[in-house]
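Handout, page 2. Input:
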Amino acid sequence: MKRLHTLDYLRGTAALGIMIFHFLISSSYKFHAESFLGRVGIYGICVFYILSGLTLYYVYHDKLIATFPSVVEFLNRRISRIFPLLWLVTLVFIILSKSIPNLKVLLLNITGLFGFFAPRAYLSEGQWSIGNELVFYSLFPIILLTAIHKKILYYNFSFIVVLLFLVFTFSLLSPGINLANQWIIYINPFNQLFYFIAGIWIGKLFLNTTFALKEVLILSTLGLGLFIFWPSYGDPIHLVSGGTRLIFAISCILICFSVFKMPEIRIKSLHWLMSTLGEISYSVYLLHPLVFGELKNIIIKYNYEMPVIMEAILGIIIVLPLSYLVYRFYEKPFMNIMNKMFAFNSKSHMI
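Output:
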């Protein structure tokens, strides 16, 4: 399949925004629901989920079939993509923290099963969303195959996902309690599954539909306008509960859809920059909390006087090339090795 570079542009931009948000919030900046970066920090991850569902549908809608080897091949490729960096980050976190977690937590992080059984058991900041992704990947073959062969089951499943989203939004997440005190509820994979399914809906409904650039620009402007200007104030809980959450979910879906249908950048240097940022976005997302935490420790240890903005800039300057190197010389080789190994195992299953 032709790679959708426009989705890379958005994925990389979201990762960059989340990184800036985390750098500043770790330096005691307070981001409320009305701030643009505060909204990016919350909904950048939701954009990841939508892009994940959309990309998987785009790649596998005509490849994944209802056979054991086909499903195994899909899961093998997802494992090869997610686990090498997850293992590296887990190891680096343990080294930097100078403490070994208990055996249960360690095993949950090594296997990625914390998303299934204990969403709060992640070690490094940001890993919680990877646990959710692994839950979504496990459901994807069922969702896709029912969408193709058992449409009634697919519609029923979609209805249940929407219902769960509404239950979390209007009942389980209370606007009277700050988000930090409801974090375990918020990161529940069934609270986030709607966004992943929304990405699949976009692919299923509009994969082969062509839109004029004017129409795409109108939809993207509407999505961004809602995201930036929709009134919401106070603690971030007000962004993820009640009717406001529905508005922001719609804005994220519109943004992802419009980018999906938008033409690629024609300026080669800018295209390369944005595509590369998208390719290394997974590394950027998981490495930046470790880099910033260690940078803060060094600044405190040696009594450096540095403005918060300069700390953030320095952190970004370190993270971006580091992420590129990790992606190029660790993630890609490791993925190739695991893909070959799993491909061999898949063939043995076929025999």
